[in-house]
Amino acid sequence: MLDRPVVRVTGVFTADCRTAQPLPLAVASVSAGFPSPADDYLEGSLDLNQYLVKHPAATFFVRVTGDSMIDAGVHDGDLLLVDRSLEPADGRVVIAVINGELLVKRVRRLRGGLYLLPENDDYRPIRIEAEMDFELWGVVTHVIHAL
Fold first, then answer.
1. Are residues 100 and 132 in the same domain?
2. Is residue 2 part of a domain?
3. Which residues fall within 8 angstroms of residue 136, CB to CB, at 6 or more apart?
4. What is the pLDDT of residues 71-106, one digit of tens each?
């Protein structure tokens, strides 16, 4: 097992909700089989800002590198939506700051301690100790990555 937490934040961007980019929204679910004419099923439009960003002033996009969270669906190069206004409850995927370094991990209270857990068996949990400069910076609400 590796000791170093390997999923790191490599960029932080503010969410700009001043602009709207409505996209067509289909009323019917889409199967993975034979396609049908989509225009027959358009319900209207969907603005991803309205769908994804609940608290614009507290929402940021962060880009990550590394593979310690792959079992949670967070891959190298992904963009994460992070809401700093949400409570970082037990079991949530969070952005944490340890000694000035931004990390992506799952926060857990276990055996009387606070831990940051990787979602890859190749990495070890990080136990938060009193001497660490530690902050739970925000809660990850969505992951954006290419297929």
1. yes
2. no
3. 88, 94, 95, 96, 107
4. 999 999 999 999 999 999 999 999 999 998 999 999
